[in-house]
């Protein structure tokens, strides 16, 4: 105790500075946020009443700053007063904190790379699979189109020579019948007028010859008997079982139920078919839009709805 009394108490220095600044212990306690009893213990050197030397040293430093003294000098005086030869090592500030090394960084990078590669492979596989499905669908559509084209091509195949010759001869005969109808009609209407005129001329000539003393010779009546020869042809065209008129080029085939070919030819625009057949008939028309009208036994026939190929098939008379 005698040695401590010979050493200077840092509390006395702090008290003198407080008094010089005219500050009370209460103000010091409020600024340091400690109790008034702790301030009295520091000034009176009763450091045993404080929590410990470390806290006491800290209070002294704060007290010294508050009253304008050197905190380090007073801290050294406190250590000497308390008999502390080795002071605690000052805590050095941390300028930079080194990041800890990640032990699993490489493994995580490899795992992430594998996941990305798996995703890319999945996308590529999905794209290839979808492309193959689209190609298959397009192939199926192409096959359907080819089937439709095959159907049209089958209907438009070139006929064998025998059938073609038969069709041409039949067509020529029917064209003769159809084209002869109009002149025959004109001839039938002009026939009576022409005959009457010729008879009047013959009577006049006979009278003139009689007056001159000549003989009258009878006029041959060959013209009157030759006129009705065209009537059977017109009757065949008008009373035909089947009549078809065309506005464009169209291939037509007409068969009997037993398979016999009644007509098979390529019809041109403006032509018509007049066919007389007792039984049922199967018709195959290559282009439905090329048909102007169809009449069967005097009644108009409506073609079925047009297909994608334009070919119309129907049976008449059954």
TrEMBL record:
Gene3D superfamilies associated with the record: lambda repressor-like DNA-binding domains
GO molecular function annotation: DNA binding
Ranges for region Disordered: 181-232
The HTH cro/C1-type domain, residue ranges: 14-47
Composition bias type Low complexity, residue spans: 206-232
Transmembrane parts of this sequence: 110-127
PROSITE patterns: HTH_CROC1
Compositionally biased residues, Polar residues: 190-203
Pfam families: HTH_25, RodZ_C
InterPro entries the record matches: Bact_Cytoskel_RodZ, Cro/C1-type_HTH, Lambda_DNA-bd_dom_sf, RodZ-like_C
Keyword Transmembrane helix: yes
Keywords: Membrane, Transmembrane, Transmembrane helix
Protein name: Cytoskeleton protein RodZ
Organism per entry: Halopseudomonas sabulinigri
């Amino acid at each position: 105790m005698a040695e401590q009394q010979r050493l200077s108490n840092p509390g006395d220095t702090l008290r003198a500075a407080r008094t010089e600044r005219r500050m009370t212990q209460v103000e010091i306690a409020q600024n340091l946020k400690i109790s008034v009893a702790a301030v009295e213990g520091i000034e009176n050197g009763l450091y045993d009443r404080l929590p410990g030397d470390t806290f006491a040293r800290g209070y002294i430093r704060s007290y010294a700053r508050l009253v304008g003294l050197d905190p380090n000098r007073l801290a050294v005086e406190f250590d000497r007063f308390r008999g502390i030869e080795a002071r605690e090592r000052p805590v050095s500030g941390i300028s930079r904190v080194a990041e800890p090394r990640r032990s699993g960084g490489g493994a995580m990078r490899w795992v992430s790379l594998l996941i990305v590669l798996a995703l890319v492979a999945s996308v590529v596989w999905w794209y290839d699979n979808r492309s193959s499905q689209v190609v298959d669908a397009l192939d199926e559509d192409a096959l359907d189109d080819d089937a439709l084209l095959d159907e049209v091509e089958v209907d438009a195949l070139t006929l064998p020579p025998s059938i073609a010759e038969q069709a041409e001869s039949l067509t020529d005969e029917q064209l003769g019948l159809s084209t002869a109808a109009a002149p025959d009609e004109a001839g039938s209407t002009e026939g009576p007028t022409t005959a009457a005129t010729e008879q009047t001329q013959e009577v006049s000539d006979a009278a003139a010859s009689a007056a001159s003393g000549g003989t009258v010779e009878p006029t041959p009546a060959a013209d009157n008997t030759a006129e009705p020869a065209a009537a059977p042809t017109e009757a065949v065209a008008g009373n035909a079982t089947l009549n078809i008129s065309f506005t464009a080029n169209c291939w037509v085939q007409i068969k009997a139920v037993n398979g016999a070919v009644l007509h098979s030819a390529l019809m041109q625009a403006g032509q018509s078919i007049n066919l007389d057949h007792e039984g049922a008939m199967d018709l195959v028309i290559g282009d439905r839009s090329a048909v102007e009208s169809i009449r069967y036994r005097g009644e108009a026939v409506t073609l079925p709805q047009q297909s994608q190929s334009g070919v119309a098939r129907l049976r008449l008379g059954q």
